[in-house]
Amino acid sequence: MIEIDGSYGEGGGAILRQALGMSMYATKPVHIRRIRSGRRKAGLAAQHLKAVEAAGAVSGARVRGANLGSTELVFDPGPVRPGTFELDVGTAGATTLVLQAVLLPCLFLPGEFIFELRGGTDVPWSPPADYLANVTLRTLQPFGIGRLDVMRRGYYPKGGGVLRARFVGGSGFGFALNFPAPGEIKAIRGVSHATSQLQERGVAERQVDAAEHLLERLGCRVEIVAEYSEAANLGSGITLWTESDDGPSIGGSALGAKGKPADEVGREAARALLNELNAGAAVDRHLADQLIPFLAVSGGSLVTSGITAHTRSTIYVAEKILSAEFEVEGLSITARR
Length: 337
Prior knowledge:
By secondary structure, the protein is an alpha/beta fold. The protein contains nine helices and 16 strands. Among the domains are: 82-175, RNA 3'-terminal phosphate cyclase domain (UDP-n-acetylglucosamine1-carboxyvinyl-transferase, Chain, Alpha-beta prism); 185-278, Dihydrodipicolinate Reductase, domain 2. Strand 3 (62-64) and strand 4 (73-76) form a beta hairpin.
């Protein structure tokens, strides 16, 4: 039984999700204490329970402590079992964060895994669905096939979105992750989305125009699609990413909010992307922490734009469960098996 301190570093839900995924991959039981002790309301919330439920369904795990508000969990996985899984996160809980808990085993271990998740697809404090599809999964292509489709957008506070994911794993063994320098940008792509009720006000197009105005200084092709759809409540957002032949995509995003002009949403996403590009790193800071489990398994190194608390927490978990040795020097992260 591997002991994990859930209060380490940022002390949030990321430690729980990453521990579940690595535990499943390694088929090692974990005991996680002080779950989310760094948050205002400690313990498991509904969203975290769904991550435990997803991991348990995929691995047939024996679980103790999976209750609302629980600050302690024992997760003892069996062999990972391919199949189709349906989960309702409820309200606006982030579907992308639930997928984060199963990403490592589903992309690395043989078999086909299909998930249909209901909840939030574009909500605060989580990677937007378009980021996960076009930055995270695109970068992880050498490890296995990953496809993500947004069937219905889910915004805060009601959620109600539908995300479908398909993973076919088992092809990435022997591949080392090495991202020492940024790739040459061929184009900037993106999706600007809003609920149908905001179409008359041209919210999605205004987000596009504002982002394009700032990005034109890069001197490359910029293609951002504007789309509208029905949702449980009003909402909007925009996700941008780079396209490169010789390096991972780098992303930037922003969400609309009551009283926040659509133009500012577009500028916020563009500034986030420009800040990452100006740092001259190969991997943006949000992708870096998502790559740590894969780096632990494959070995290799990457240079990121910033070492976040999430990244340090995930390194801690990877060293405990996967026995990898990490070295962080400046903005460079190296993993040795």
